[in-house]
Amino acid sequence: MIWETEIVKHANKKMMQKAADLIKAGEIVAFPTETVYGLGADASNAIAVEKIFKAKGRPQDNPLIVHIADQEMLFDCISGPLTKMAQKLIAKFWPGPLTLIFDKSNYIPEETSAGLKTVAIRMPKHPVALDLIKRAGLPLAAPSANSSGYPSPTRAEHVYYDLEGKIPLIVDGGSSQVGIESTVLDIRGEKPIILRPGGITSDDLREVLGEDLVHYEKSTDIEKPVSPGMKYRHYAPHKAVSLLSTEEIQALINNCPADPEKKFRKAIIISKETDFLVRPDCQFKIIRYGSRNNPAKLARKLFSLLRSLDQDRSVKQIYIEKIPEKGLGEAVMNRLQKAALQERPISGGGD
């Protein structure tokens, strides 16, 4: 079905109810969260969930994250009681950008969990997302609202660019505040395992749990991913992305020919600490994101920058300065490393 996709403001209560009614009727709707925009459907409705995979072009073995608004919804989705670890994490980080892996109940169909016996759940920290879930009265399965493989959307217009004609409605809630997806934590065993770094850092988690966390082996060869962000190349523009150290950037700039006509066949995203290396006649289109010691600022801008450069016809290749993998920098570098893999986008990723 081809839709005339609408973009509506979240302040319009009539349209918010329309969005909720569409979800209750088994349709899909894009909405803002604090991380990125999500593409939501009734998590318990297998037919509705299939529409998410079709609209995004998402592989069927890539599980979806279920978004809830209260603990009653949580208990509908999981089997068994909450562990002490789960209670601590929920008390501290929900609502917020932390996804937890639980054993699932029969309420969640295999289409939502990609055939797994587990389910990934989070409670978003965005008033529009929470309002929509409450109005629908249903947990929402909601990956990022983009074409699979492409950078995640942080504004309503990003969603429209990717999914116009494929979905009926986009709720515009402004720019996402975090800018990258949630952290995914498997808490089923004795040791918590970070499956995907994200908006909650390892240090944040360690402070609450009082112990070190296991990081899942970084791999693109995973048979059955338990979380989004584990298997496929994603977050990637169509143009080639290369990650460079500051020293490699310096060498690149030192050796670049002058470009007096400013044709900008290459673009480089750098920190303010590296800005002094740039020559006035350099051939690169320079994008400065701020300090490399403030990864939160880059996180908020990252996907929007990648999208804008991908759509800039004057730019043929994108270079990005590496940042320290500390705090939120770990999640930023995770996204950049996925985006810079050499093979073409296969699909996947998202919240």
Provide a descriptive summary of the structure in words.
The protein has 351 residues and is an alpha/beta fold. The protein folds into two domains: 6-181, DHBP synthase (Alpha-Beta Complex); 240-339, 3-Layer(aba) Sandwich (Rossmann fold). The chain has eleven helices and 15 strands. The strands form two sheets. The protein has an eleven-stranded mixed beta sheet with strand order 1-8-2-3-7-4-6-5-9-10-11, with helices on both faces. Strands 12-15-13-14 form a four-stranded parallel beta sheet. Helix 8 links the parallel strand 10 and strand 11 (214-215).
Outline:
This protein is of the alpha/beta class.
User: What proportion of the residues form beta strands (DSSP E)?
Assistant: 15-25%
- CATH topological fold name of the largest domain: DHBP synthase
The coarse silhouette is: globular
Mean pLDDT: 90
Task: Briefly note the structural class of the backbone.
Answer: alpha/beta
Instruction: Work out the helix count.
Output: 11
